[in-house]
Amino acid sequence: MPPPSETQDPHEAIVATWRAESARLVGALTRMTRDVALAEDLAQDALVAALEQWPATGIPGNPGAWLMTTAKRRGIDHFRRAEVHRRKVAELEHAHGGREPQMPDLDAQVDHIEDDVLRLIFLSCHPSLTPDSRAALTLRLVGGLTTAEIARSFLVTESTMGQRISRAKRTLITTRAEFELPTGADRTKRLDDVMAVIYLIFTEGYAATSGADWMRPALAQEGIRLARMLTALAPGDPEVLGLLALLEIQGSRMPARLDDDGLPVLLEAQDRTRWDQLLIRRGLGALRAAELLAARRRPVGRYFLQASIAAQHARATRAGDTDWRRIATLYDVLAAAAPGPVVEVNRAVAHGRAFDPDAGLAVLAAVSADALGDSPLIPGVYGDLLERAGRHTEAAEAFRTAAARTRNEGERSILLRRADAASP
């Protein structure tokens, strides 16, 4: 991160430094201590020390290095006090040539430190953890969010989220999860798990499953930040680039997804001049980089294809300019590459726009009514296609069914509005 300015507020500097450096800090400490819970405690101790000292002594020239040095000193003190961990003291002191720890220049050890961050991401998304626990631990350890911030994002109490994170850490200890980078086929599988967690975090922010707000922008932005971090760590993977492209292109629409009264606005009714053009350019740039890698026969998958679909919307200056036939073709490819009910429902929408509502209804008819449990997605799309087919009474009924299923008040409001509009 850039050096602090002389006029910068110490508290702002601490917050900015923590967000930028916490993953590197916890990752390096986990490598040294082989204990992720202890590593986080040491990092938190360093953060508290900064809060106590920087307002009085000023912001250090290299804030991240200051935190790392302080945390390492606390770690050495911890092991010195614990007789049973004297071997760990030797390991930590050996890393500094037997001298009092001096923090090396972080920039001179970028490769080593970035490996620590990647190890931490893989550890946070360990297969022994549930998807919800992976998301919470990733936001905590890699994203640097507080337990309270994560709890607010997922609409649970702070104590509940704290227990979830604590259980996840205990699970890692119980299963003896290794703080090492996986290789070969295991790396590919684990990288898929990491991308799934980042996508889950973004999606919950972009289209919240429950609560009063249709979106939680801070959570979506955190998903984008994590995707950028992963891209920096795995720049030659077209799927990672595809994930980043997808999140940035979709994220560009957030300013237009609510009207001036705070009511949800669907994609085709959005004012596209409100879309974030910088995010679109970044997303399309990431997609172009992924396409170049794909041209060299690097394998691609669902995120690359979804980003290609999102790009079709981003390139259309008006809803009427959207190349729905191209989107329908891409969904056909996606359905073959990553089959599933959500893909089929979205494919039904694409076919309904590209050809006619009956074509979309035919695709949707092949999806079991209970394929997504009590999700509002299937009846919501069914209502949309029925409305376009002129079957308004049936459409209104489908919209009301979807409204009864959703746990999000914003989504419920738009479904009920559509039900009222479709009613004869």
Q: Please report the number of helical segments.
A: 19
What is the fold-level CATH name, i.e. the topology of the domain at 323-424? Answer: Serine Threonine Protein Phosphatase 5, Tetratricopeptide repeat
Helix-strand makeup class: mainly alpha
Shape: elongated
- Total strands: the figure is 2
User: Ends: how far apart?
Assistant: 59 Å
The topology string of helices and strands comes to HHHHHHHHHEHHHHHHHHHEH
**Neighbour order of strands in the largest sheet:** 1-2
Determine the mean pLDDT: 88
Task: Describe the largest sheet.
Answer: 2 strands, parallel
Helix proportion of residues, in percent? 55-70%
Pfam family, one: DUF6596
Domain RNA polymerase sigma factor 70 region 4 type: 120-172
GO biological process, one term: DNA-templated transcription initiation
Domain RNA polymerase sigma-70 region: 21-82
